[in-house]
Design brief:
The chain has 159 residues and is mainly α. The protein folds into two domains: 72 residues, no CATH class; 69 residues, no CATH class. The protein is 70% helix and 0% strand. Helix 1 runs antiparallel to helix 2 and helix 3 packs antiparallel against helix 4. It is globular, with a radius of gyration of 19 Å.
């Protein structure tokens, strides 16, 4: 069961990455794949993302093709119990709330809250890891994008 799902993810990643690269000139006027060498180009991150998706999909597909299906991969489907569906819908709802919260209170604070709330939903309850991650990771992302890469992130009422 897991083997087929992983192969589907690999195919989807390659497909989306290829679509990003093919649609680039239509989405960003004057953009072409040569812009990968110019970090100030608006096409730099879409090209980087598309290439990363393609490479990741190929790597996952190759690994699964070499490894083949294993008995350990034949687990009960996620949706057999109602708990799996409820958890999936809860995470989806939380991500929708997060999208609105980014604009209202800012990326850093809303990301901190997202990490704190979503970790237990994903059955991760180690507070020694969750709390520092929730405090440090959003600030690292902020510094990387705002200060190093000069890409503005959404700012809200708090931060």
């Amino acid at each position: 069961m897991r083997f087929g799902a992983d192969m589907a993810v690999a195919v989807a990643a390659v497909t989306v990455g290829t679509a990003i690269l093919l649609l680039l000139p239509a989405q960003i006027s004057g953009a072409h794949l040569g812009d990968i060498s110019n970090m100030d180009s608006p096409a730099f991150f879409p090209i980087l993302s598309g290439a990363f998706l393609i490479l990741s999909g190929i790597a996952l597909g190759a690994q699964k093709a070499i490894q083949g299906p294993r008995d350990a991969d034949r687990i009960a489907p996620f949706f057999e119990s109602g708990i799996g569906i409820i958890r999936l819908l809860s995470i989806a709802a939380l991500l929708v709330v997060y999208l609105f919260a980014i604009r209202m209170i800012g990326m850093v604070v809303s990301s901190m809250v997202l990490i704190l709330v979503m970790a237990p939903m994903l059955n991760f309850r180690n507070l020694r890891v969750i709390l520092p991650s929730a405090l440090i990771f959003p600030f690292c992302v902020y510094v990387l994008f705002e200060k190093v890469l000069r890409i503005l992130l959404p700012h809200g009422g708090i931060f």
